[in-house]
Structure to design on (219 residues):
């Protein structure tokens, strides 16, 4: 009948259609996403450090927990990587040089913080330090991931220990507390500057995009 004829015609027409492209979506994960995640982690660590620093400085007591306490940097504190570099000079570095400096600095700062974790006098403070160290370790790995995704090699050589062999310990409790104070102060500055670094970098590197790939469908 008419219905069977129409059905036969449609089948013949479909069989003779030209090969159509099949549309597949693949998400390319690249440097853009890695940079965004690293930026987000620096901002999280900034927030986390504000609480940790306040708790730790209260643990150290006066004058370290006083808002206007701003001592000169002692020679002993030079072992802590300093972030006090001229901003124009810092921005004039290549992306590779800034990333390498961040990677080395956080690797060393992590060693110092782990030493603090073992010396903290309260269980709550040790817990907070341990959690922060885990987050900072994540930042070190994240920076390494960014460098890898951009094709940059990691800085040669392992990060140094908190103090080279033979380095004398602080001669008194006040100087030991001063070391801890400068460690937190420099870490705050590093995180503030790193957040700006990764914010600029993510504007230079486009985020991951969904690409459309056409594949011929054969019969």
């Amino acid at each position: 009948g008419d219905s069977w004829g129409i059905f036969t015609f449609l089948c013949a027409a479909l069989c003779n259609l030209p090969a159509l492209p099949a549309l597949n979506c693949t998400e390319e994960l690249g440097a853009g996403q890695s940079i965004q995640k690293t930026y987000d982690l620096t901002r999280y660590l900034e927030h986390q450090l504000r609480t940790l620093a306040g708790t730790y400085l209260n643990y150290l007591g006066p004058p370290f927990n006083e808002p206007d306490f701003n001592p000169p940097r002692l020679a002993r504190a030079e072992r802590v990587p300093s972030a006090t570099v001229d901003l124009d000079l810092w921005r004039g570095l290549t992306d590779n040089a800034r990333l390498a400096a961040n990677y080395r600095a956080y690797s060393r700062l992590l060693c110092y913080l782990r030493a603090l974790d073992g010396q903290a006098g309260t269980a709550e403070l040790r817990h907070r330090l341990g959690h922060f160290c885990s987050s900072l370790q994540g930042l070190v790995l994240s920076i390494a991931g960014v460098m890898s995704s951009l094709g940059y090699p990691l800085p040669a050589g392992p990060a140094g220990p908190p103090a080279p062999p033979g380095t004398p310990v602080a001669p008194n409790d006040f100087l030991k507390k001063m070391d801890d104070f400068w460690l937190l102060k420099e870490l705050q500055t590093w995180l503030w500057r790193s957040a700006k670094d990764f914010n600029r970098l993510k504007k230079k590197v486009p985020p991951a995009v969904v690409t459309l790939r056409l594949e011929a469908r054969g019969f």
